[in-house]
Automatic annotation (TrEMBL):
Highest taxon above the source species: Bacteria
Protein's recorded name: SDR family NAD(P)-dependent oxidoreductase
Keyword Oxidoreductase attached: yes
Gene3D superfamilies: NAD(P)-binding Rossmann-like Domain
Record-linked Pfam families: adh_short (PF00106)
The species this protein was found in: Protaetiibacter mangrovi
Keywords: Oxidoreductase
Keyword Oxidoreductase assigned: yes
Family: Belongs to the short-chain dehydrogenases/reductases (SDR) family.
Amino acid sequence: MSIPSEPAPAPAHYADLVATLPRLDGRTVAVTGCTSGTGRVLARTCGELGARIVAVNRPSARADAAAEDLRAAGIEVVSVDGDLGSFAAVRAAGERLAAACPDGLDVLANNAGVMALPDEATVDGFDVQMQTNHLSHFLLTSLAWPLLRGAADARGEARVVNHTSGARRGAPLQAAYLRPEGGHLGGDDFPGAAKWRRYQQSKLANLLFTYALEQRMSAADAERGIRILCAHPGPTNSGLQAKTAAAGGTRLLDRMILRRTLRVAQSVEDGTLGILRASVEPTARSGEFYGPAGRGLPGPAVLLPPERDPDAEALLWDESLAATGITEYFPG
């Protein structure tokens, strides 16, 4: 049984917001997961504003095609192979990113994500959703930190932007989801709620990582102008729902969740506005959170109140360090 298709809605807020943004000439923006969805719109928009784009994607024909589409639009783009399902691949991507950014990295947009996949372990033993959505971004951000410092020293600021979702709400963070328990966390048995819980935990991790990173970076890095922000897209017709269905998300619960989202979903362009504002808007400050204000409703991206949980942030940080094997998070 398949998820019923819904026509893609027309953008309602995208053009007006983009018209307010500054040029990005001389800046480099790295976006993970930009073959489709919000990542592709973010990369295209930043490129149209003059930025040089570093596209961090798992090697595929889709990644090659997305990069060629950007080049065809007159955008300078460098492709970096980066499979977020493997820490070894992320470390290799970190080396390629450094080679691609000799003048520093102005924005690292940790956008890539997967949703409601079967209960499987990555090659490192972690839940495929948690490693793809959070742990590999946690590692990549550490690897990119010297590049962010370089951009901030040269041009006055640099940003890390994480992408969460409305699914972050629900159960508090649990350490088991951050440990090498992939394949043993549940998600394929009736009614299939456990895979959505694993997704919820990964998206909660994205937000907690933002606050934990912002709190733990040094005062010197903050004075350099490094800013840490987060965004969520609201219900968005991004193509992620179809990928979930193709991966086996056809149980009654899956269909209910996906159908409900698509019924109210906004365009992928409007869903990109939160991460776009966090990445580009000059007045955005470190620690801020952008996205539609309504719970489970579409709308323009606005500044949202913080959602702090110091105990969960500390748990997230400590477990993520242990998972990735990082001993010095802010190298140099």
